[in-house]
Amino acid sequence: MNEQNYEQEINLGKVFYRIFRDWRKIFVIAMTIAVIAGAGNFVMKRLRTANPEYIEKAEENYLRELTAFEAMGETLRREIDNLEETRAERETYNTTSILMKINPFREFNASLQLYIATDYQIMPELIYQNPDLSNRILRSYITYMVNGDMYQYIMNHMAQPVELRYLKEVLSISADYDNRMVTLSVQNVDAESCEEILNYALEGILKKQPEIVEAIGEHELNSVNQAVYEAVNLELDEWQKGNIQYVSELSILLQQKAEALAAWEQSPQPQKDFTTPRILKNSIKMMILGFIIGAVLAAVYIAFRYIMSDKLQDAKDLKSRFGLRVIAQLPNVHKKRVWVGFDRLFANMGGLALKESDAGALAEVAAQSVAAELTAQSAAAGNGVDAAVDGKASAKPQGIKLAFTGNVAQTEIDSLLSAMKWGGTCQVQSVPNILCDPSAVSAVMAADYVVLVEKQEISTYAQIERELEQLAAWKKKVLGFIVTGVDAVP
Known about the structure:
Blueprint: H1 12-21, H2 23-49, H3 52-96, H4 98-101, E1 107-117, H5 134-146, H6 149-157, H7 164-170, E2 171-176, E3 181-188, H8 191-215, E4 220-231, H9 234-266, H10 276-308, H11 316-322, E5 326-331, H12 340-349, H13 359-381, E6 401-405, H14 410-420, E7 427-430, H15 439-446, E8 449-455, H16 461-473, E9 477-486
Parallel strand pairs: 5-9, 6-7, 6-8, 8-9
Antiparallel strand pairs: 1-3, 1-4, 2-3
């Protein structure tokens, strides 16, 4: 025996097979937990709904949740409408604005200064001085320029129509009241457009002059420092890029809001939890959740029990643990079961080679294997040599006593020996468990060889080790193991 040097290895494939093999147990456990969870939830909810105070509070909560739910949808729709409107306005602006059309690296500018001159003089000899009307006149011109009349005059005369807001962006007015001057500045895509706006602005101002002369007083309006030039405007470049980027950000934000609205439309509307259909629906959900949790817990328990168990799980381990061969593995034959196709599928997935239908044949093969080994050992020992047949010596295990014992019921050993169909080659006897039955000791001592019969998931490795220790102490030869109850393909 080499039990002391053996280390059990965990085979995940076997662990999963053990879980799938017991799928019926898992299903029953999961269904039991599901029924308990669903029924418990239904009973608790029905008891709560019998309380009028609970119904009143639940109704208030439902109305509050419904209001909040609908308000969220309205908010999202309103935000989407505002974003669409803003984006459309920005796209229109970027397409039609004069500033957006200007090349910032070739910006054309035009400027003109107007100077107000009057005949006002200070009379030192007079105590009372005549009022200086220059600032009044200048303010009148400024008012005409900024109140929209001058812009309207320009728009009425330009070759290409332009909106007021775009014209105000490129035509700026600045006044210097101390020096009685006003400066008009224009930005545009080319010099001709700058001059056109500036000339129509001056033309409108000159047409306004007679009205101001009549209302305030005589004066002269002189234009100075009129010029057109080209410049690089990096601030305009950044401003244009910012406008384009803003449209992109609006599109991204609009897409996010649309996705949020779609998710809101797909989300379930708040329901009254205290209605019978709602209670049933929640109970069904609890049943499904309970079934999943129950199945997982049952599977974990089966896997843990398989890993930690000392019971015989695989006949192949006997050779590795104790150094004795496995004479035969006899499958566990089940009665007809429903949905046996799943059992067959999981058995094939687990790599099982035996079939339940071959149980009888395998028992006979086990008998023949034992008989052949005894014949070989008798021939090697020179015992029981018969007359030559066809010129060859024939050795048979005549009179050898063979004991079958193990950690199984004696009735099972009797059934096994009956299925093995022993002939008259040797004396075979079923013996009770040598660890529990005193009568088994004398029976084993009277035998020449011993075959240990163990049952999968019944016999333990500790019991088998004790049996082998006893037999070794009694100087009994163990031929090997016969394992019954082995998993097989249905």
